[in-house]
Amino acid sequence: MVSIAAVIVIGLSTTSIGDILHDATRKYVCRVEGPDCGDETWVEKERPEKPEEYTWTLASAWDGEIRGEGSAKVAVEFALAQRGKPYDWGASGRRAYDCSSLMQEAWREAGVSIPRTTWDQIDALQQVPKSDLKPGDLIFFHTMANYPPPSHVGMYIGNGQMVHAGDPVNVTQVLGNPRWESIWVGQGRVPQG
């Protein structure tokens, strides 16, 4: 007798999951902050065609664990060094990033393995009060109306600001900013040594 799990694994291994996920999600319209709107208002842009660097395989699926402890200083410095690089949905760096890949790569440089997507990141991290934000904490937002929250993530760097893969990677004031405060979903802390 074949178990349900075996059927699912066989089905996944014979299907191009990346293509299915990408085709399903790129149909949504996302709101991004960028130079086209003078960094002052939200504009709507359609998701790009499939990025060259976007790949999803069964082997790259997150197993539910965060591994390691790291330095927030290293993660913040890495993320800040990426300023000016383009936003590319599904990109995994170093030429371009999407929001969650920038966070994953920054913390990988600091010695911590965290999940790839915003949903897995917020679920995996230790939740902290907004009033206790520290540099290196990840902050989550709901930027896409037809997409489950959170759909955007940035890294808190202090002074009410975050570094994030906007369009391009940039530093943005979030605390006290009505636009960001109105779409704020939560915040989490990566294990630090």
UniProtKB/TrEMBL annotation:
GO terms for biological process: proteolysis. Keywords: Hydrolase, Protease, Thiol protease. Residues 69-191 form the NlpC/P60 domain. InterPro entries: NLP_P60_dom, Papain-like_cys_pep_sf, Peptidase_C40. Pfam families: NLPC_P60. The keyword ATP-binding does not apply. One of its GO terms (molecular function) is cysteine-type peptidase activity. Belongs to the peptidase C40 family. This is Cell wall hydrolase. It comes from Streptomonospora alba. The lineage of its organism: Bacteria, Bacillati, Actinomycetota, Actinomycetes, Streptosporangiales.
